[in-house]
Specification:
14 helices; alpha/beta; about 45% helix; homodimer; three-stranded antiparallel beta sheet
Amino acid sequence: MVNEKYKKMLSGKSVIRELAEYATARGKEIGYENVFDFSLGNPSVPCPKGYTEAVIKMHKEKDPMAIHGYSPSPGNPFVRETVAKSLRNRFDLPYETKHIFMSSGAAGAIAHAIRLVTEPGDEVIGFAPFFPEYRPYVNDSGAELKVVPARFEDFQINFDALLEMLNPKVMAVLINTPNNPSGVFYTKETLTRLSDILREKEKEYEHEIFLISDEPYREIIFDGKAYEYPSKYYANTISCYSFSKSLSLPGERIGYVAVNPAAKDADILADMCTQISRGIGHNCPAATAQLGVAEVIDEVSDISVYETNRNLLYDAFTRLGFTTVKPDGTFYILVKALEEDAVAFCNKAKDYDLIFVPADNFGAPGYFRVAYCIDTEKVRRTIPVLEKFVEEIYR
Amino acid sequence: MVNEKYKKMLSGKSVIRELAEYATARGKEIGYENVFDFSLGNPSVPCPKGYTEAVIKMHKEKDPMAIHGYSPSPGNPFVRETVAKSLRNRFDLPYETKHIFMSSGAAGAIAHAIRLVTEPGDEVIGFAPFFPEYRPYVNDSGAELKVVPARFEDFQINFDALLEMLNPKVMAVLINTPNNPSGVFYTKETLTRLSDILREKEKEYEHEIFLISDEPYREIIFDGKAYEYPSKYYANTISCYSFSKSLSLPGERIGYVAVNPAAKDADILADMCTQISRGIGHNCPAATAQLGVAEVIDEVSDISVYETNRNLLYDAFTRLGFTTVKPDGTFYILVKALEEDAVAFCNKAKDYDLIFVPADNFGAPGYFRVAYCIDTEKVRRTIPVLEKFVEEIYR
């Protein structure tokens, strides 16, 4: 018999996807260059040339059976060691091959990490604003997602609310820095305080509370700032990474879980991920994509366009009187709508072919997300349209 | 806190993997050419040249953002339509794009299919001998796997046992034809009788019983025989496919779910798969692998070596007095050990560097599996060693 839960989920279509589909359809009517489509977080810069060259070279020169053979369940050992080495060098933590599990993007990494450190019925704490897909990741594991409300003034952590929500059923805390949708990253102060609280509660509850750190935007940081790596602050950290954004390879579905070498059971957690994979029927990312990213492990796509776009949009939104927080990175900005109902606001913006995503599902009602992974030229053309929209509708 | 279930699973290491690791280690001692390693089902012939050429061409000529961008959750629509068209032409069933969901190999396809048509607590019936990973696929969905004992004389279905095990909690029946580990495929008679029984029970129980058909070896058929496609016999069929074996691309993790267009809810089942993916944190196979297989959709690697190997081994085993059934396809043969305990038998064979897998976990105690996806030259060199082993230990 057909499963009812998944059947019902069909009616809950993703707002982002609906808007992206609308933008595409509208583009067919009036030319896509005239649609100011800020709906999707699809990178707008190509992957590094080195990736393309590596893929071509391996297909030309290597034995097909060697490159297309089964990868061991936790990933190609050479690729895992390459990831471990890169993390060692960058963050000065003693990662080894055994701490790395190659996953199908950050989505796969998070889904594994949650199952790794929770049992059905446990609680996982997340923080608004948050990527809406955290809900299905947590729900499907049998754990329950509890969301700490946003601290809208700076999108750091609302610690009072966190302290109220912590209880012995909490086995994991899920953060995302820099953040989708706000673009803000957690400061040294935020991570220090969060770690202190979690360590204290671990003692009080007499069990570990794992920090699951979702970091696909780790490389996309602006203003020359330094990224604060959560695992440096808290030993029981599982970092979840994706090459989708840093290398502009979202379709290749490749990322990893990196277990802090000082975490409880650090030596077996990546191995346990392979047991989780068996049950959900997925093993590794594609063997050739693993080999490809290993060749460019410390490279990043040319992301300067995102910073330019951030500057243009942040200036425009603030000049026009919008409330927002300047993003530290990513390619998102979260902005307060000019009326209480962000859905209504975004619908009105659609009449001007401005496609913004209401952030209700991100835990930020009244706000909208702007994904500026698009050409700068289009961002420039957006600004007068935005001005006109605000002038005509809200002045 | 670390999940206990997955931690415990670590101790239950795969027998196949342990033997494969032993064979590799032994190969380092005496030269791998001297180890008669029949442990792993890793294809031993290269992928079609057209796949390699297609991958090189797309990386050389196409816009990286176009080939590496996010694929829609159910898969690239062009690739889905290519699959649907190929199935239409080959099996004369009116598949459309909407019936196809691209998955991470057959493992991903089966894990999705089980969740699609069961609720936790439901029963899924499988048939010995069976691929041991069916257990974690079913267990993790919350359903329960019940296994119909093998009909050892021909590895068709033991219908008396099936009829005893059918009950209203059974929502799905999981078959694998041609079969890993027996190499036998289900005949017209078997599929007709199975379908008749299931249709009758659907009426009696007043709910659908879906047939989940695992078909990664569908293309590897010997003696010029015709493959009987289960979906032709039974409308409520979900075919689970992988390109791992037919195109020798196991590391690329690509396959699909194909819903029979006449199945209950056929129009939404593939879409429901995308909802399942959200919860398990995996979406599509790699975008470039999808595009690659679409270019060679109706090709098959040169699999003649498998038939040659089958002939050599079947003749040798029968000549030496072993009990077995002649495989119709795949690259496996299932053979009765010369003593009751197949584990003991395989351990003794190891002393001759003959690496066979005891089939207890496959639901065939007393039997062992021989994976003959290796060079024919090595198969030829195996036979005198096998003779010597039998002569010295069992005569």
